[in-house]
Amino acid sequence: MDFVIxxxxxxxxxxxxISVEVDISRGLPCYSIVGLANTSVKESKExxxxxxxxxxxxxxxxxxxxxxxxxxxxxxxxxxxLPIALAILCATKQIEFQDSNEFLVMxxxxxxxxxxxxxxxxxxxIEGINNNLNNYIIPCDNKLEGTIVNEANIYxxxxxxxxxxxxxxxxxxxFKETKTSKENYFNIDFSDIYGQQSCKRSxxxxxxxxxxxxxxxPPGSGKSMLARRVPTILPNLSYEEALEVTKIYSxxxxxxxxxxxxxxxxxxxxxxxxxxxxxxxxxxxxLPGEITLSHNGILFLDELLEFDRKILELLRxxxxxxxxxxxxxTGIVSYPCNFMFIGALNPCPCGNFGSSKKICxxxxxxxxxxxxxxxxxxxxxxxxxxxxNSLNYSDIKSSHKGEKSKVIRKRVETARKIQxxxxxxxxxxxxxxxxxxLINKYCKTDYKTEQLLEKVFEKYGLSTRAYSRxxxxxxxxxxxxxxxxxxxxxxxxxxxxxxxLDNQIV
Length: 506
Hints:
- By secondary structure, this protein is of the alpha/beta class.
- 37% of the residues lie in helices and 17% in strands.
- It contains 21 helices and 18 strands.
- The protein has helices at 39-42, 44-54, 81-91, 121-130, 143-146, 160-169, 197-209, 223-228, 239-251, 276-280, 290-293, 309-313, 316-321, 364-371, 376-380, 393-397, 405-422, 436-442, 447-460, 464-480, 488-496, and strands at 2-11, 14-25, 30-34, 63-69, 103-105, 108-109, 115-116, 135-139, 153-157, 213-216, 267-268, 281-282, 287-288, 298-301, 323-328, 331-336, 340-345, 384-387.
- The strands form six sheets. Strands 11-14-17-10-18 form a five-stranded parallel β-sheet.
- Strand 15 and strand 16 form a beta hairpin.
- Helix 7 packs across helix 20 (464-480).
């Protein structure tokens, strides 16, 4: 007696269709699972046995072999519990599941037969749709996540008995309620920030083009406050971007049962004691790290120079390639990490270098040693540097408030729409994603601007990467002004954003 049921597993954020094959034959009682299954899958034997018995069915006393096919793909997690239990019940003729080849089944079983939530449902459903499977039996707590894909017929259940009843009598229609996560209500606003007009302008440019930015200045000047208000001026995710973000949070187990498609851009702010694996991803299950959880959103590193230098150097490749490849003995996983990087730092160990109020007590050697945690290759990957001044009493008591976030957001959204139209056939969304070919195509400059760039390039010994980033920022500034061509004033402003400490262009 044998039976086959479709299920799936994920590796990274990609799904793989898996066939659960159960064969029950005569012989000494034995229950084995084969097919490159890890420990969490093999432990399902006891969960499945107890769930079947406690749900009122008979567990066969025979030789049971469960094969998870194909056998060359590693299987991980407890989502195979439900398909294995159903395959055993069908193989022993306790239930009939005649059109099982049209369904994909997933879910973890408790000892009492309850079906528990599992991570990674969204990428598995997407893979199933790509393989012409339209019907899905999933845990009830995953139902909102499942309805994100419109083509899928979702049948959510809470217990094994409910699933058996549906298979036998087909007494339910697909669950069709679609719920997306609502936009966050921000109780913070850019108008809360006193002064810092140059910082606000540089952040607006960074958001408009998705550029990386570092803010530096004395403690208490408002760097962290500015960074935390960046989400209030960013546009919502497009459907394609939202789907990518939701898949990442699904496989990470960070998507709650009340969340559907995520519309808000992620904002991640890890502490400076973070480990390498927590930052870039990895571990036994090769889960996404903070840089992937920031995909299509923001990665904010406050007190940047308090991070270990080795940790910061790990960001060099993701900042450039927008993907991270994690290699382990179990295989290679590629995660997307197209995030906007924001860093905040003090200019010296005491924090008062450049302050108009307090005297810096650090020597030149101490200050240079402190700043040297940021290597030249790392700084090359930053588009914008901006200085946050110490505030005066008149700034704090001024009745004049700056622009509200919704006003700045409109300008950012307008610039983003220009870029989306420009890059609609290029496979990218923002100016920061342009490669050298796209820079040559879309960042044309006149003769005077070329002369200016040449003088700066030769005088400061800029790298090719820094030169490219100046052009990208200039392109964004021209988009904010709705200018078709890059003007000399745009390049001048972009050059100002390359000044970092001692007014040196980096």
